[in-house]
Design a protein that fits this description.
Layout lengths: L1 H4 L1 H6 L8 H7 L3 H7 L32 E8 L4 E7 L17 E3 L6 E3 L3 E5 L6 H11 L5 H22 L3 H17 L27 H15 L6 H12 L16 H19 L15 H12 L3 H14 L10 H15 L12 H5 L7 H7 L9 H18 L5 H4 L11 H11 L13 H6 L10 H4 L1 E5 L7 H6 L1
Parallel strand pairs: 5-6
Antiparallel strand pairs: 1-2, 3-4
Length: 495
């Protein structure tokens, strides 16, 4: 009910000012009649002319040629005020008439010397999730084949770099997860380049050096952390984040040193680039701060804690699931699978691993040891577990399970989990990596997403995957709309 969702707004509207749809049609058949009956002069009563970019004279529109950029107009009457809503019909740039393009970007018409500048308008719907083939297609455009190993190494260094900043700022772990999501999403649509001038912390403080932070991966990481801190309601001043980040990269850096190329201090010059990158990043995420479904506005680590309590999982397996989640934060899995499906997949893997020993610095308290009898065994939980109880599509959960197992099969030696598990598994007498391989063989026949619809030909025709023009706002207008699905998402689930 509106009265429950917006009580303060409804109380401020007098009952007499709100009319039913039948009363509105009876009294005012059109907005023009209402303007004629209302003798008061208000800003919304001024005559507004809807122009068509293809019309030579905006004051004399041609009724036979409707505006292609406007699909419908609706008027809502609340307390003698009109709200005009125009819905853009096309997601493409407004087409230019053939033979009517001039060198200055204007559309000329026959029999008239006047010209109207073309104002492109585009609508972008956010796409929080991609397929693996789409990510591979985008990386082939932004990361050269020779730099892909270097990109992986830089990404791992950036992950540790951001983790150290978060520890000093005392941010929750969800800020790190969001920042890594933004960092990996940024390089889907921007080229990965290494800048020698800024790769070592921006230089040695010499005022004569050139400091270009626009392509520096660590500066981009700081920008992602700055935006993630605002999204996750852990706001800190940008200067505080810069100070900690610069000290971690270079202890001898002089932030007050004037840079001759810009006339600004080092920290102000860096700040200028960070804000410029943030403007690009906002367009990349399409101003979608939900990172997926709006109903699941929480991080994977919080969901793991909630699921473990719900399923009565003991402390040891809960910590194992939390450690697995920490490793997965640096991977692009959050760009493919929603957070609640990732959390459930991690718990399923933890229950199947069920190690006898975990090296933990923190031991369970006496109260937790007394409640150990209230927890269920791993086998009992697995037998009663149903993904539908957690609103998780089974296909997406399976997709996350296979991805996580592949990650540990190939990168277990550099994972954080390698620190907490013994080198040799006491049950099998083999290294822990073999346990993941055996577990994957048991999941070989599970149903995962079908990516046959994501062929290279279709990806090339996908407008969303094209190179984005960051200057579109200065040329025309862009409208960003929220969405919790990506293209062909339902079709892949049905197969």
């Amino acid at each position: 009910m509106l009265s429950q969702k917006y009580p303060s707004i409804l109380k401020s509207i007098h009952p007499s000012s709100v009319r039913t749809s039948k009363e509105k049609k009876k009294k005012f058949s059109s907005p023009t009649q209402h303007q004629q009956t209302n003798k008061q002069t208000r800003w919304w009563k001024k005559k507004k002319v809807t122009t068509n970019p293809t019309q030579p004279n905006p004051t004399q529109p041609n009724p036979t040629q409707p505006n292609p950029t406007i699909l419908s107009k609706r008027y809502y009457y609340i307390d003698c005020s009109y709200i005009f809503i125009s819905i853009m019909a096309s997601r493409e740039l407004t087409p230019i008439p053939t033979g009517a393009t001039t060198g200055t970007g204007t559309a000329a018409t026959n029999g008239s010397n006047t010209s109207t500048p073309l104002m492109p308008s585009i609508v972008q719907i956010s796409r929080p999730f991609f397929t693996h083939k789409e990510i591979s297609y985008l990386h082939n455009q932004t990361i050269p084949e020779s730099l892909k190993p270097h990109y992986t190494n830089i990404k791992n260094n950036v992950f540790q770099f951001l983790f150290q900043i978060i520890k000093q700022l005392k941010f929750p772990l969800r800020v790190l997860a969001t920042a890594m999501n933004y960092y990996q999403r940024y390089y889907l649509f921007n080229k990965f380049e290494t800048n020698n001038n800024s790769s070592g912390g921006g230089g040695n403080g010499n005022g004569g050096a050139t400091f270009d932070f626009s392509d520096d991966p660590h500066t981009i990481a700081i920008t992602c952390l700055f935006l993630a801190s605002k999204v996750e309601d852990c706001i800190k001043r940008l200067k505080d984040i810069q100070t900690i980040a610069n000290k971690l990269r270079d202890q001898n850096i002089d932030e007050n040193k004037i840079i001759e190329s810009s006339g600004l201090s080092y920290i102000d010059h860096q700040r200028k680039h960070i804000l410029s990158i943030e403007y690009k990043l906002l367009q990349i995420i399409k101003f979608d701060f939900n990172n997926g479904p709006i109903t699941i506005r929480t991080s994977v680590d919080n969901l793991i804690i909630q699921f473990c309590k719900n399923m009565k999982i003991n402390y040891k397996l809960s910590m194992l699931a939390w450690l697995i989640n920490f490793d997965i934060m640096s991977t692009p899995l959050s760009l493919v699978v929603p957070p609640h499906c990732i959390a459930l997949a991690i718990i399923i893997i933890s229950l199947n691993l069920n190690p006898i020993e975990i090296k933990l610095n923190h031991e369970p308290q006496e109260e937790e040891e007394e409640e150990e009898g209230n927890y269920l065994s791993a086998q009992e939980i697995l037998q009663s577990l149903d993904s539908d109880d957690f609103k998780c599509p089974e296909v997406l959960v399976n997709e996350a399970i296979i991805y996580i197992l592949d990650y540990y099969i190939h990168q277990y030696q550099i994972s954080i989990l390698n620190v907490y598990l013994p080198l040799i598994d006491s049950e099998s007498g083999k290294e822990q990596g073999y346990k993941f391989m055996k577990l994957k063989s048991e999941f070989n026949e599970i149903k995962i997403m079908d990516e046959t619809s994501c062929s290279k030909l279709l990806n090339e025709t996908d407008e969303y995957l094209n190179k984005w023009d960051y200057t579109i706002s200065s040329k025309g207008s862009t409208r960003f709309m929220l969405s919790n699905k990506r293209r062909r998402f339902n079709k892949e689930l049905e197969k």
